[in-house]
Amino acid sequence: MKTLKNDRFLRALMRQPVDCTPVWMMRQAGRYLPEYRAVRAKAGDFLSLCKNAEFACEVTLQPLHRFDLDAAILFSDILTIPDAMDLGLYFVEGEGPKFRQCVRTELDVARLKPPKIETELDYVLRAVRVIRNALNGTVPLIGFSGSPWTLACYMVEGGASKDFRHIKAMMYNRPELMHQLLAVLTDTVADYLNAQIDHGVQAVQIFDTWGGVLSEPCYQAFSLDYMHAIVQKLKRKSEGRPVPVILFTKNGGQWLSAMVATGADALSLDWSTAIGAARQQVGKRVALQGNMDPALLYADKPVIRQEVSRILADFGAYNGHVFNLGHGIHQFVEPDKAKIFVDAVHELSVPYHQKN
């Protein structure tokens, strides 16, 4: 086991003291970087890029060459699990992911075969090993998965949706069938994340992208209960240190107390929730990650630094803050703006971590 040269991200997730606030960006390896676009063109398409461990490693490390980030995140996609269930995943430029087969009936659910993680998703695990080796102990590597509800949204709708009419119809008309689908996905996500941990990731994040489209009782029953089950199944220690778990429900700021009860180590916030108010609500029970509006990176340098300063002040001089955007970095952001953001977090956060 290599000693981590920079472990402030992991320490912050466990609410331990750090010298400055750690920072990383969701989708930090992506289309805003010209070098990413060059590798994607070489790979041929997005899925081919994901399934080639060397390419996945190259694009994972690209933002770390440009910016002083405190973590790398595995380059992959949240839809690897349904793809391995033979639903015919493909991507349409400008429209996002689509499936050739939808899951909408009792027969569709019964036909689903949970993938064998070590064989059918071996390309992900190989990428984890290659990236860990390439990182050489510089910063930790984050693994991830979509939440069962979010995966189900894509599987039932057949792609992205604005009204979620098919999955909500299933949820209300056939709740038992919805629970059957979510139970299959829950076991698979837990196995998938545990395999990532076994192969070298040092923290994991569950992306509940579409949990925020639910009413409060439905969020608890059809999203949070299943994430709770996953958290309870995860390996929480590897290589002699804790493996922190982060939950991220977009537009889920009103459910933070319920999310704390899952046993996760950290909650990730989007920009619609004030981080100071969130900290008051959760106290010292979990770390918080977030939560700058990604669109701030279109602003000028003084504006970016001012917003970083405001969020740091809102959180205050407490342990347990990982700075991030409230969602993924936009593809049209200039890379220099991302550098301004990352450097500002490190520089401006130092006073909050100095002992009185």
Number of helices: 16
N-to-C SSE string, H for helix and E for strand: HHHHEHEEHHHEHHHEHEEEHEHEHEH
> Percent range for helical residues?
40-55%
Ends apart, CA distance between termini: 35 Å
Shape: globular
Structural class: alpha/beta
Rg, rounded, reads 19 Å
Query: What is the CATH fold-level name?
Result: TIM Barrel
Main sheet specs: 7 strands, parallel
Count the domains. Answer: 1
What is the topology, as strand order, of the major beta sheet?
1-4-5-8-9-10-11
Sequence-ordered SSE layout with sheet pairings:
Layout: H1 8-13, H2 34-43, H3 46-50, H4 53-66, E1 72-73, H5 80-84, E2 89-92, E3 96-99, H6 106-111, H7 117-120, H8 122-135, E4 141-146, H9 148-157, H10 165-173, H11 175-199, E5 203-208, H12 216-233, E6 237-238, E7 241-242, E8 245-249, H13 256-260, E9 266-268, H14 275-282, E10 287-289, H15 301-315, E11 321-322, H16 335-349
Parallel strand pairs: 1-4, 4-5, 5-8, 8-9, 9-10, 10-11
Antiparallel strand pairs: 2-3, 6-7
Helix pairs in contact: 2-4, 4-8, 9-11, 10-11, 11-12, 14-15, 15-16
Notes on the protein architecture:
With 356 residues, this protein is α/β, with parallel strands linked by helices. It has a single domain (8-353), classed as TIM Barrel (Alpha-Beta Barrel), CATH 3.20.20. It is built from 16 helices and 11 strands. The two termini are 35 Å apart.
Briefly say what this structure is.
With 356 residues, the chain is α/β, with parallel strands linked by helices. 47% of the residues lie in helices and 11% in strands. The strands form 3 sheets. Strands 1-4-5-8-9-10-11 form a 7-stranded parallel beta sheet. Strands 2-3 form a two-stranded antiparallel sheet.
